[in-house]
From TrEMBL:
One Pfam family this sequence matches: Fe-S_biosyn
Name this polypeptide is given: Core domain-containing protein
Residue span(s) of domain Core: 10-106
Signal peptide stretch: none
NCBIfam families from the UniProt entry: iron-sulfur cluster assembly accessory protein
Gene Ontology molecular function, alphabetical: 2 iron, 2 sulfur cluster binding; 4 iron, 4 sulfur cluster binding; iron ion binding
One GO biological process term: iron-sulfur cluster assembly
Length: 111
């Protein structure tokens, strides 16, 4: 893991804006970004709507919240959480400087 990058994760305005659109249609919830063991590269991202937990890191913008649990946080140091709307689909994405490789779909990575 790249310990030299001791920066907190960042969320783009585009990701906060998309989360605000999603939350208009539902009860407002935070976007949880977690790292789990598994996937084709060793670790995988788990991105879902969830409630905030007491020990989460909370990143706020545009009245929205993105939360990261303390176990996942070291894997996401310096990462950028964004939203991409492309021909192949729309999804939240993570640009992770700690990942040494990732799968083609971007949901799995290794360190």
């Amino acid at each position: 893991m790249n310990v030299a990058l001791n920066l907190p994760p960042k969320v783009t305005e585009r990701a906060f804006a998309r989360l605000a659109e999603i939350n208009e249609a539902k009860d407002a919830r935070a976007l949880r970004v977690a790292v789990l063991g598994g996937g084709c590269s060793g670790f995988q991202y788990d991105i879902r709507l969830d409630d905030k937990a007491e020990d989460d890191l909370v990143l706020e913008g545009e009245g929205q919240a993105v939360v990261i649990d303390p176990v996942s946080l070291p894997f996401l140091t310096g990462a950028v959480i964004d939203f991409a709307d492309e021909l192949i689909g729309a999804r939240f994405t993570i640009e992770n400087p700690n990942a040494t490789s990732s799968c083609g779909c971007g949901t799995s990575f290794s360190i």
